[in-house]
Amino acid sequence: MIKVAFASNDRVNVNLHFGAADTLVVYDVSPGYAELLGVGEFVKVNMKGENRLKALSTDEETANVVDMQLSAEELERLAAKPPEDKVIAKLDFLDDCSAIYAASIGTSSIKRLIAAGIQPIIVGTGQTIEDLLNEVSLALHCGGLSWVERAKAKAERTAQTPTAPRESAGGLRLITSIDELE
């Protein structure tokens, strides 16, 4: 019913900064069900500034990030030829998604995501994709998350045919009520 993306390098936990994410995982979520639609892979970006430490990856390359100070020569070179915008490819990949979950998202990217109609959601350490999919599934069935309500209404307005919960070998069965938690 709605498509939701996650910035994750292990496809289990949300553990990447959106702008520097080299992997985005997209699921189609409906009440009680989620199906993996695709995985986007992007050029790895080295973060600079205060957000560089917000990537939650445990690999050595990310864990040993050093503060990068640019010299006057490097600043002049960047002014002459700005670096390629790595967010454009991610926005194109997320084109029909309702939301993106990430460990961190910069202000500029938040503005661009909102302008594209994609809800940016920052989550803390330890958030698994399955838990977040369950939260979205439950909200689709019972309500409670305003962005899900908006996405659901938009999906219903644009749907050609009503969608029913479906089952396939690659999907996840999710909860649709608090009773199922017991």
TrEMBL record:
It holds the Pfam family Nitro_FeMo-Co. InterPro entries: Di-Nase_FeMo-co_biosynth (IPR003731), DiNase_FeMo-co_biosyn_sf (IPR036105), NifX-like (IPR034169), NifX/NifY_domain (IPR051840). Residues 58-136 form the Dinitrogenase iron-molybdenum cofactor biosynthesis domain. Gene3D superfamilies: Dinitrogenase iron-molybdenum cofactor biosynthesis domain (3.30.420.130). Keywords: Nitrogen fixation. The keyword Ion transport does not apply. Belongs to the NifX/NifY family. This is Nitrogen fixation protein NifX. It comes from Azotobacter beijerinckii.
